[in-house]
Amino acid sequence: MAENDYILQVKDLKQYFYPDRKHVVKAVDGVSFRVRRGSTFGLVGESGSGKSTIGKALIRLNDPTSGSILFDGEEIAGKLTRDLRRHITGKMQMIFQDPMASLNPKKKIIDIVAEGLDANHLYKSREERTELVCSMLECVGLSREFANRYPHMFSGGQRQRVGIARAIIMNPEVIIADECISALDVSIQAQVVNLLKDLQAERKLTYIFIAHDLSMVKYISDYIGVLHLGHMVEMGTKDDIFDHPIHPYTRSLLSAIPEPNPITERSKKVQGYDYYTSGIDYSKGTQHTFSPTHTVLCTDEEFARWA
Fold first, then answer.
1. b/e for 279-290, b at 16 or more Cβ within 10 A?
2. What's the pTM?
3. Is 1 a residue whose pLDDT tops 80?
4. For residues 223 and 235, is the Cβ–Cβ distance under 8 A?
5. Domains plus CATH for the chain?
6. pLDDT tens for each residue of 112-128
7. How far is 220 from 183, CA to CA, in rounded Å?
8. Residue 303 burial (10 A CB sphere; 0-12, 13-18, 19+)
């Protein structure tokens, strides 16, 4: 596959935080992956594994400590010029986890959705601005009449649709969905995910879908990366991950997925995993290939044993 088939290429990305002079938090420690154009790359892992930190580093809400991020063939991990920052914000957008906290409660919906248009002067008149926002609200399943209302007047699912409209109105190529369904009811989650899939088909979008719900990740994703303690421990197609999991942590996550049948749910065995007693050392591992699409972070000895 040609290099230009990948819209995003991340190599050895590190994101460290320094709470004080004596301590360092290695939130992301040497993560590498590539994302194909028009596909959905799912990032899964427990809380604190580094999923959201990667998303914020990609869109440059945080400045990466080191590593390379190629976006559409252009390096964006270093110091950003004004033109490069404008290119990133125009072609890469983010949908945030909390649909209330991410919306300014003092602004009307029309002004919230039009934030990107205002910042980049992407309209010629107030009438064109209004029409662009109202058309986008209809695109995400909301009425034009909602444009002059405030966020507190909407349900959680409707507020998240406003967040999606704010991102999509910029006509981006990449959307980073940072646990955008975790704060919603289960029935509303399905509606929002189906909306995202429809928008992807219509606009040829590329998604980085960050979530805890493995079943939902399987439904929407083409490729999946499993994160633990800031390391990408396993990566492959959704069939690779769900049908042939190799890393013990991946197997532990999959074994914890609830069963809809109460009889099998009571009898199933959840596979435990404790990194500190497992004998696995992520810092000594390298990406070993089990198939053209399936890689696992492990040492040569672990590779021989798991293969």
1. ebebeebeebeb
2. 0.91
3. no
4. yes
5. 3-229 (3.40.50.300), 232-307 (no CATH)
6. 999 988 888 888 899 99
7. 18
8. middle
